[in-house]
User: What shape does this take?
Amino acid sequence: MKNIVIGQYVPGDGFLYRLDPRTKLIAVIILMVAVFLLETIIELVVAFGLVILLLIAGKISIVRVAKGLKPLFVLLLFTFFFQILFNKEGTLLVEEILSLNPANLGLGLLLTVLWRLLARFGKFKTILLFLWIAGIYCLLRYVAIAPQWTTFSLQIHEKGIEMSVFVVIRLLIIISLSTIMTLTTKPTDLTQGLEKLMRPLKVIGIKSDDFALIISISLRYIPTILDEANKIMAAQASRGADFSEGGLKEKIKQVISLLVPMFIIAFKRSEELADAMESRNFVPGKKRTRIHELSFGWKDAVTSVVILLCLAASITLKVIG
Amino acid sequence: MTNRFEIRKLTEIALLIAIAFVLDLIASIIPSPFLYGGSISLAMLPIFVIGLRFDWKVGVLSGLALGFLSTLNNPYIIHPIQYLLDYPIAYGVVGLSGVFKDQTNRLGRFLAGIVLGSFLRYLAHGFSGIIFFSEYALMEGKDPWVYSFILYNLPYMAASMAFCLIVGSILWQRKLFQKNLH
Assistant: This one.
């Protein structure tokens, strides 16, 4: 917890690293729109192939991107099964009669308890989840003892399989694109890119330089504050408090005793920081100098052209198809 | 003097956003009690405090900043519009709680801001859920509305709001947020 890394940036030297963050931000947005214009599985497979090529060309390890997909794994699984089970279009491929009766309900509950107990050990969680799903399915399918409470049929249609592959590939592409960007761009560079892109918003009163400065200071202090929060919680624990236990009233008490010092320290620190900035002649809104200036080079120009071609291609496919 | 105030404003907002981010991190460690997911988080509280201490414009700006920071940490991007609704807009509208700010500095107004901010954030997440269900689960009719607005987003958002209201009013009574800038 102490050495928290914000964002997923991993140092590297592929060409994606050398692109201007502004180019990458805009490219991701345009590519996402382009992907959503695609309508057939073949188009999506080609697009997915292009993403893989991009990963190889940019020297990004596919394993790392796959790791980035992990938090969204449940979502992918959910979408996949949802499509397969509930899409009733096209020809019927499989039909199975499932039944619910006292015997398999009892066994099912037992299986669920067993699954939750095993899942506590924290190992093979995914395999356990699959085993559980398979177990429940077998129980419903094969344990058919009277009295039957209710039966229902499980149907898998052609269109269901097609659509589940379609949405899962699309989801994979979308997630990979955003992961590629955060993997290859430092949070500070992204912030600076965003600042430049948000310049025009000055018209509606949003000062992009203030915005970027706020984010940079936050990024700097998040690890410090997290460390302090851990210390406060450890101090509470040494006095017998447990943040994961207790009733609602207890929890609120503990949260208050965590928040009071956090806010007080933050107000105090903001004052000291303001002193330091003022004494170095910082004036909000005035032009600042930077150690690293962003530069839009020929690589960015080439990338922009390629991205626009991709968009044009998917618009064309949409119009033709 | 105004220069000094402006710098204080910037640093204070930045540190409060950092607290919000840390609170979100801590909340994500504790497993969610809800069947359909979503965690009870106090991350909105610092934004409410910013809205209270400055105004709604600053609040919205801070919300946008927090939205950007949480994108870096936990990118959950499945659709362009879903992204806008779930990050910049969801956090940005929390800052609108500042519309209730006035010179009287009453607890009731602070709490009204919390209710407004939470409700607007709930709406943003609700609509993003509709996009998810219609794009990925191909549900039509009123089903996606029930799933998104009632089953998924309502429990944890209502709990987060209640948590913010309770903790917010206790901290208010301790005069923690009323410290004047100088």
Summary: Strands of chain A lie at 92-100, 150-157. Chain A touches chain B through 70 residues (CB under 8 Å).
